[in-house]
Design a protein that fits this description.
Elements (H helix, E strand, L loop, with lengths): L1 E10 L2 E11 L4 E5 L6 H8 L7 E6 L2 E2 L3 H10 E4 L11 H11 L4 H14 L15 H13 L5 E5 L7 H16 L3 E5 L3 H7 L2 E6 L1 E7 H9 L1 E7 L4 H9 L4 E5 L2 E6 L2 H14 L4 E7 L3 H10 L1
Parallel strand pairs: 3-8, 3-9, 6-7, 7-8
Antiparallel strand pairs: 1-2, 1-4, 4-5, 9-10, 11-13, 11-14, 12-13
Helix pairs in contact: 3-4, 9-10
This protein binds adenosine-5'-triphosphate and magnesium ion.
Length: 304
């Protein structure tokens, strides 16, 4: 659905995005993570044909972002929640959506049906006649999400969809994204919220001008983090640590009465470790797996 090859954007001397290559499949929810200034918004703006690329190629549903004849087709295919959501402040929520629906040439019936559907789902239906300018940041954000969907796009770009939302509204939006996924829409989300990425994204990519890691969320965690076993002892001493190290694991860390070992295969390695620790005089209180969060992996990657 989205195919990107060597996409690069420079603003004068600043390279915002360099050599980005990735594919987002039909119906997939892809999370784009990265620190401030990583190039996430720039990428989405290029894909939405709002700014030109410097080099490389990208296509959406087969339409080329660099081809002027395809730009209108891309605009009809995609919906965009931009980083800063501009609305017509004097118009009501309903009229804002109706206006954008007209721009996209949606019929009156389509507009009526979709506006009600999305405003209800996002908890704004009661506020439909209130001027958008009086809305709180979070309400504007939700209204802008509805706007992104008014023409029923196949592909949705959401630039930090829950950035201004309180926890309850963030959950409404997350559930909403999962509903959109059930409708087989392709969703590309820029986010700083790692918990959210873990909950809603099938795959994530981590950008720092260049793509530094990418994969299915769970596999990425495992491949970058490894499998770690935590052994809790009544007491850790040098003999026990040396015995574990002799088994040749990738790393052994001692943290108080705990030993954290980077194992290859826990099913095979844990029993061996237990044996050598007991033989070295250790008394084991517990053996557990240390599960990483996306945050652990993300922080390690962006700091390196
Ligand atoms: N119009 C522009 N002119 C000059 N430089 C720009 C422009 N837009 C973006 N940049 C630069 O490109 C880089 C990437 O910015 P971008 O907004 O894409 O980052 P981001 O990953 O979305 O960050 P954030 O998480 O803070 O939203 C930054 O160094 C930024 O200053
Ligand atoms: Mg941004």
């Amino acid at each position: 659905m989205i195919e990107i090859e060597g996409l690069t954007k420079r603003f004068g001397d600043v390279t915002a995005v360099e050599g980005l290559t990735l594919r987002v499949e039909d119906g997939e929810v892809f999370g784009f993570l990265g620190p401030n200034g990583a190039g996430k918004t720039t990428t989405v703006r290029m894909l939405a044909c709002l700014i030109s690329k410097t080099s490389g190629t990208a296509s959406i549903d087969g339409y080329d972002i660099g081809k002027s004849a395809d730009v209108q087709k891309i605009r009809k295919t995609i919906g965009l929640l931009p980083e800063s959501v501009g609305m017509y402040d004097d118009l009501s929520a309903y009229k804002n959506l109706d206006y954008y629906g007209r721009l996209y040439e949606c019929s009156e019936d389509q507009r009526r049906e979709r506006i009600e559907h999305f405003l209800r789902l996002l908890g704004l239906w009661e506020k439909r006649d209130v001027a958008a300018g009086t809305f709180s940041k979070g309400m504007k954000q939700k209204l802008a999400i509805a706007r992104a969907l008014i023409h029923d796009p196949k592909v949705l770009f959401l630039d930090e969809p829950t950035a201004n939302l309180d926890p309850e509204s963030a959950k409404t939006v997350r559930d909403f994204i999962l509903d959109l996924k059930k409708e087989r829409r392709t969703i590309f989300i820029n986010t700083h919220n790692l918990d959210e990425a873990e909950k809603v994204c099938d795959r994530v990519g981590i950008l720092k001008t260049r793509l530094v890691a990418m994969g299915a969320t769970k596999q990425l965690l495992e491949s970058l983090w490894g499998r770690k076993t935590v052994i809790l002892l009544t007491k850790v001493d040098d003999a026990i640590v040396s015995a574990v190290k002799r088994l040749g694991p990738r790393s052994v860390e001692v943290d108080g009465n705990r030993i954290v070992v980077d194992v290859g295969d826990p099913a095979l390695d844990n029993p061996r470790m237990v044996d050598v620790i007991v033989a070295a005089g250790g008394r084991i209180q517990g053996v557990t797996e240390l599960l990483p969060s996306l945050e652990d992996v993300y922080l390690r990657l962006v700091r390196s």
